[in-house]
Design goal:
Length: 284
């Protein structure tokens, strides 16, 4: 009887040992039983492969098994805002694409060659960019800019329409005699101790329209300072004051006048500037 109990206890212990062996991990990472011959647990369903976001500069093409590409739609016609030295603020309409956009690229078309000047993220439809200055000794040059959208598989959209931006040189070789322009500037200032306002009118006295303008003048007294203005983008560097147009008053038709103005301060003297230049030419 004692022998039977010993055998029964040994069998029970062995059976218990089978069920107490812990589960172990396989080399593939799947969890399996620790007893040979027992079924493994159902394999995990692999997660979806992340989409590949193609960089804008990546020239590769998608795998051959991918369906034919649908390029993005052309971006909306860009509009140029503030132009400060060679920095341009540009805004354009968004593109759409079934594959998702990767970026927008801004190009300049120069003598039949396209030059990339900026890249913006897929959710950005405006920003600042830099273009080249005119050659030394040249007062201005026109930069022709357009925008291309690129999707996440590297497909380019058709180019947007082109916008022309006039860039002014920060260093210009002085001319022996100033060039007379087809313009007339009237400057009317009202002032009080320490402050002033000024109304400025620009008249096109020529026979052709002025497409884009840049008015400059120099304050005679170092204490005269510009503080704010209206109907133009106003800046002051040293004693030189510059005004450039807004989107709605960029062009001046023959015989037409643009009215702008500003507020400022002075230190006791508020003389009227003597020379006004429009696009580098002296106005009457």
């Amino acid at each position: 009887m004692k022998g039977r109990w010993a055998v029964s206890w040994a069998v029970a212990a062995l059976a218990g040992a089978v069920f107490l062996v812990p589960a172990v991990g396989s080399a593939s990472g799947e969890v399996t039983s620790g007893v040979a011959g027992m079924d493994t647990l159902p394999p995990r369903t692999p997660g979806p492969t992340p989409s590949l976001l193609w960089p804008c500069h990546d020239p590769r093409t998608p795998p051959p098994s991918r369906p034919p590409l649908t390029p993005p739609t052309a971006p909306g016609t860009p509009q140029a805002g503030t132009v400060a030295n060679n920095m341009v603020h540009l805004r354009w309409g968004a593109s759409t694409d079934a594959d998702g956009l990767a970026c927008y690229q801004v190009y300049e078309e120069r003598n039949g060659v396209r030059i990339k000047v900026a890249t913006f993220g897929p959710g950005v439809t405006e920003g600042y960019l830099y273009v080249d200055y005119p050659p030394y000794g040249t007062a201005t040059r026109v930069a022709r800019l357009y925008v291309v959208a690129v999707d996440r598989w590297g497909a380019d959209s058709p180019p947007s329409e082109t916008v022309e931006v006039t860039v002014y040189n920060d260093v210009v070789t002085p001319s022996p005699t100033p060039t007379r322009g087809a313009c007339q500037v009237t400057y009317d200032s009202h002032w009080w101790p320490g402050g002033m306002t000024a109304s400025v009118s620009i008249k096109n006295t020529g026979a052709t329209a002025i497409a884009g303008w840049r008015l400059t003048f120099t304050y005679p007294d170092p204490g005269q300072r510009l503080t704010s203005g209206w109907s133009a983008n106003w800046t002051q560097t040293g004693s030189v004051v510059t005004a450039t147009p807004l989107s709605w008053n960029q062009n001046i038709a023959p015989g037409a006048t643009v009215a702008i103005g500003f507020r400022g301060t002075h230190e006791g003297a508020n003389p009227t500037p003597s020379v006004f230049q429009l696009n580098g030419a002296t106005c009457g």
